[in-house]
């Protein structure tokens, strides 16, 4: 079988589970096999065909052009979230103190620390997530401090930038999760009945952790623009490349 036929055969085997993404997934699988010649292809395909997302099956995924370890300890880094990094970098010159709240795999903070000389604190309630963040920091040769914290409960001091992709799925969304999402930690997705629990708590708690002229930057779900903007006075919304509301910016001016 030549390379082309091999890719086609992978694509066919992925078709049932990946649908129109089968061609794209076969490409990722091929790249992975080239880098890991000893990999057990049948085992990888079996896991994928049982519905586990490709990113977990491969155990690594790119975010903001950087390599990240991906497994079930935290959410898969998503391209939508790269928008938060782009906005954050437009605020950062170097020397700032930055908090990545609900850091999960650590991808947002690590992408920032890779591009600017910042002092980074990455916080999550989940020790599993923090261990993954630590691995990803080493993988990307980034220095950060991890803190186990239920939102701000374990956080000390004030920050120039607080960035967060908190859990924001609603009760109905959690009850009808698509199969691939059911492999991701529920604690990282579940935003309470209306999906806004974490935004409400952040709204109450963030002011004492933000320096003067600092910024708060939050990822939101595509239907949450109005509700989150109502919670945060003066908030601005930015849209992602799929033209969906995706990021909320709150500036502190005094
Ligand atoms: N972006 C994820 C989704 O659409 C949710 C991420 C989150 O809750 N922070 O399923």
Task: Please describe what this structure looks like.
It is a single chain. The model has no long low-confidence stretch (mean pLDDT 97). The protein is of the alpha/beta class. A hairpin with a 5-residue loop joins strand 8 (236-239) and strand 9. It has ten helices and nine strands. A seven-stranded mixed β-sheet has the order 5-4-3-6-7-9-8, sandwiched between helices. A two-stranded antiparallel ribbon has the order 1-2. The protein starts with a helix and ends with a strand. Helix 1 packs across helix 2 and helix 5 packs parallel to helix 6 (107-115). The longest helix has 16 residues, at 3-18. Helices cover 38% and strands 20% of the residues. The protein folds into two domains: 3-50, no CATH class; 79-251, Vaccinia Virus protein VP39 (Rossmann fold), CATH 3.40.50.150. The protein is globular and about 65 Å long. The chain binds glutamine (GLN). Glutamine (GLN) binds at residues 78, 165-169, 181, 189.
């Amino acid at each position: 079988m030549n390379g082309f036929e091999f890719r086609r055969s992978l694509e066919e085997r992925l078709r049932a589970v990946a649908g129109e993404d089968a061609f794209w997934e076969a490409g990722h699988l091929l790249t992975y096999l080239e880098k890991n010649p000893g990999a057990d292809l049948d085992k990888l395909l079996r896991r994928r065909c049982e519905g586990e997302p490709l990113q977990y099956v491969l155990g690594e995924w790119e975010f903001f052009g950087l390599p990240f370890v991906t497994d079930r300890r935290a959410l898969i880094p998503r391209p939508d979230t790269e928008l938060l990094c782009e906005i954050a970098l437009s605020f950062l010159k170097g020397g700032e103190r930055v908090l990545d709240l609900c850091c999960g795999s650590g991808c947002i903070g690590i992408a920032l620390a890779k591009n600017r000389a910042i002092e980074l604190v990455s916080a999550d309630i989940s020790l599993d997530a923090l261990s993954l963040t630590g691995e990803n920091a080493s993988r990307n040769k980034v220095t950060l401090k991890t803190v186990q914290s239920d939102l701000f409960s374990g956080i000390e001091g004030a920050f120039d930038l607080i960035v967060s992709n908190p859990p924001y799925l609603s009760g109905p969304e959690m009850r009808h999760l698509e199969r691939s999402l059911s492999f991701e930690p529920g604690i990282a997705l579940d935003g309470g009945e209306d999906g806004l629990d974490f935004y409400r708590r952040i709204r109450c708690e963030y002011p004492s952790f933000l320096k003067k002229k600092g910024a708060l930057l939050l990822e939101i779900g595509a239907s949450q623009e109005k509700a989150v903007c109502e919670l945060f006075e003066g908030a601005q919304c930015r849209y992602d490349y799929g033209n969906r509301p995706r990021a909320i910016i709150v500036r502190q001016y005094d």
